[in-house]
Amino acid sequence: MTKAFGLSGAVLASWLHGFNFVRNIAAHHARLWNSAIAVPVTIPKTLSNLSRLDNRRPFLYFCLIQFIIKQSEKERLALPPCNWGEKFKNLPAIFLHIANQAVTLSDMGCIADWGKWDLRQ
Question: What percent of the chain has pLDDT over 90?
Fold first, then answer.
């Protein structure tokens, strides 16, 4: 499995542990958008563009999920093709209409130009 994703076993294990933590926050109806993720993941040098993201914020984990989805499609693993990344890009327009800016994308760990990122990579 690590070969299909181009990751070492240790890196993939750290990602799976992080995904499990994020899943538990969401499954137990806690606030995910501004949660401090207590399980740091390892970012390989091949994905150095992700190193500028905060390892304690959900946005990094969403990018990692998208990476796994796209690698799965590329390697023709069991996942059917999906447009999760495009749907994710549309979420702020749907949910962040808060006049007082009490909830911001930066709380989630998004960087200023995140909308220009190709989350399919």
Answer: 23
13, 21 in Cβ contact below 8 A? no
Q: In the chain, where are the structural domains located? A: 2-116
Three state DSSP letters for 10-57: HHHHHHHHHHHHHHHHHHCCCCCCCCCCCCCCCCCHHHHHHHHCCCCC
Give the contacts of 25 (CB within 8 A, at least 6 positions apart).
Answer: 31, 32, 35
**Res 46 pLDDT > 80:** yes
pLDDT in tens, 69-105: 888 887 777 667 777 777 777 777 666 666 666 777 7
Cα distances (Å, whole numbers) of residue 80 to 74, 75, 119: 11, 11, 17
pTM of the complete model: 0.80
